[in-house]
Amino acid sequence: QVQLVQSGAEVKKPGASVKVSCKASGYTFTSYGISWVRQAPGQGLEWMGWISCQTGNTNYPQKFRGRVTMTTDTATRTVYMELRSLRSDDTAVYYCARDIVSYTGGDWGQGTLVTVSS
Amino acid sequence: DIQMTQSPSSLSASVGDRVTITCRASQSINNYLNWYQQKPGKAPKLLIYVASTLQSGVPSRFSGSGSGTDFTLTISSLQPEDFATYFCQQSNSAPPTFGGGTKVDIK
């Protein structure tokens, strides 16, 4: 079965960077893209971008352009999301999701809590 | 960006009730409308995509309808495991955007 397993919780100081991983199994890795979505405490869902696991092409929304980088490692079937210049309002649970069709998350990771605090 | 407006933001219902949640897009999204269920502390789960296609493994009491800008999620007979928060999402154009959510709790 499809599984996306994310790395563990992180605590970072303002201005630092965080890199979250998402290891995929149970399907042909290069056949699907991965989106990253975050959810601040008690809030809704916010799309952070998408990466093709076949080509490495990315699509980031204006809000995160220049501050986020998504990469893949085909050998280990792992996708990474790095967010730089962290602020307190970046405190959130970060999810990776396998896109079964365009920007539609059919399978999700368990989430990674990133806490930004001085 | 396309704005997604869900209503109501919360509702109370009983087991066996028929529940309807609506979602409106700020412009036409060509039926690229998805519904997710999220329980506390868990990742969202895809229920319905492209407005009315039931995701594999999702019970048939869930259904979706609508086109253009107005969409509906219906739960025909609410079950105890359905108490959760439901989000709509447009996937017609980047950036994909989500509604604010509808929390369904026990009356």
Kindly describe this structure.
- The complex is a heterodimer of chains A (118) and B (107).
- Chain A has no helices and eleven strands.
- Chain A is mostly beta strands.
- Chain A is globular and about 40 Å long.
- The model of chain A has no long low-confidence stretch (mean pLDDT 97).
- By secondary structure, chain B is an all-beta fold.
- Helices cover 0% and strands 50% of the residues of chain B.
- The interface between A and B is medium-sized, with 23 and 22 residues.
Q: Return Rg of chain A in Å.
A: 13 Å
- What is the N-to-C order of secondary-structure elements of chain B (H for helix, E for strand)? EEEEEEEEEEE
Which percent range describes the beta-strand content of chain B? over 45%
Overall geometry of chain B comes to: globular
The parts of chain B where pLDDT drops under 50 for at least 5 residues are none
Helix content of chain B: under 10%
- Name the pair of protein chains with the most residues at their interface, and give those residue counts: A-B, 23 and 22 residues
Radius of gyration of chain B: 13 Å
Task: State the end-to-end CA separation of chain B.
Answer: 36 Å
What is the average per-residue confidence, as pLDDT of chain B, rounded to a whole number? 97
Number of helical stretches of at least 4 residues of chain A: 0
Strand content of chain A: over 45%
Mean pLDDT across residues of chain A = 97
